[in-house]
Amino acid sequence: MFLFIVTFLLCGLPLESSKACPDVCVCYESSGFIDCRGHGLTQVPKNIPDSTWMLDLRQNNLSKLIAGSFSALWSMKILLLTNNYIEEIHSKAFEYLGFLERLDLSNNLLSQLPHDFSIHLVSLRELKMPFNWLTSLSFESFEHLESLEKLDLSNNQVISIDKGAFQSLSKLRYLFLQCNRLEVVQCNSFFMLQKLEVLHLAKNNISIIDVEAFSSLHSLNLLILSNNCLSHLKFKTFLNIQTLSTHLQLLGNPWICDCDLQRVFGKIMSVRHLHMDDYENITCSNPWQLAGHSLMSVDTQLCVAETATVLVITITVLVTVIAAIVMAERNRKKNQEKNWNELDGPIDLQEK
């Protein structure tokens, strides 16, 4: 980003006395770059030139964006609002930004997005909102972002995603949701994201993943589920990822190392298009005897132990059954002899 800004600075000389430039900002006419960084601004300045291509409002004291904040800035492509105190975005705040391609709202205080947040951002290709306080994501907030390719929602407090929340983002390639509070990945959470290449879900609280959760991700190259609360997996969850090649990262989960887990990982690694990038570093949390051990170092023993247990149980049951049969046979013979003795007694008396 700094190299990008430097390029703009070198492209034109500042207009020191231009009436079309806010007093607190530096304007570079030939590049269309307006630099308003770090001036303690509490509102978006007026008199921003109509030809502005890039507006830098980082490191100010903006607390809200009101309707018409960027009036008539039809040429704007990049808007940087990082490191402010924005906690509210009013309806129509982005009304005139129909050609905006990049919006950075990182490091602010947003806890929710208005339902019409995206209605005027139809050309947006990159949206960054990490380090805010978002708790939920709804379909209405992203409904019109049909050109979006990269969405960064990491380091928020997201605990729920509406079903189909991203279904309008048909061009989305990168989705970053790491460092949130998600517990469940539902079947329609990523519905219709057929061009998605990277899905980053590390450092959440995910313990449940629906079997069909990733089935519509036909272009997925990288799925990161590291450092969550997964203890078991269903093989079909990953088999449903129908791609040419998908890399999986599952390190740092509290795995229960048993025969079922070993079989699931074994099946995953046998599928040609699935690649376990960190299998050799995955460790067990349970049972306590295996805590801290590498799964790879004990995986061959897990099913052997289970097989031995099953064999012991089978033999025990078999011996019990045989013993029962033998006892039953003995009892039958005893009863038979007793019956014969009872029959022989009266006959002897008659003969006498």
Radius of gyration: 34 Å
CATH architecture of the domain at 1-109: Alpha-Beta Horseshoe
CATH class of the domain at 1-109, please?
Answer: Alpha Beta
State the secondary-structure class.
alpha/beta
Largest sheet: 12 strands, mixed
Please report the distance between the alpha carbons of the first and last residues.
124 Å
Portion in strands: 15-25%
CATH T-level topology of the domain at 1-109 = Leucine-rich repeat, LRR (right-handed beta-alpha superhelix)
Shape category: elongated
Please write the string of helix (H) and strand (E) elements: HEEEEEEEEEHEEEEEEEHEEHEEH
How would you sum up this structure, described in words?
It is built from five helices and 20 strands. The protein has 352 residues and is of the alpha/beta class. The protein has a domain at 1-109: Ribonuclease Inhibitor (Leucine-rich repeat, LRR (right-handed beta-alpha superhelix)), CATH 3.80.10.10. The chain has a twelve-stranded mixed β-sheet with strand order 1-2-3-5-7-8-10-12-14-16-17-19. Strand 16, helix 3 (235-239) and strand 17 (246-249) form a beta-alpha-beta unit. The chain is elongated. Residues 1-19 have low confidence and may be disordered.
Question: Could you give a short description of this structure?
Answer:
It is built from 5 helices and 20 strands. The protein is an alpha/beta fold.
Features of the shown structure:
single chain; 352 residues; alpha/beta; Leucine-rich repeat, LRR (right-handed beta-alpha superhelix); 12-stranded mixed β-sheet; two-stranded parallel sheet; disordered N terminus
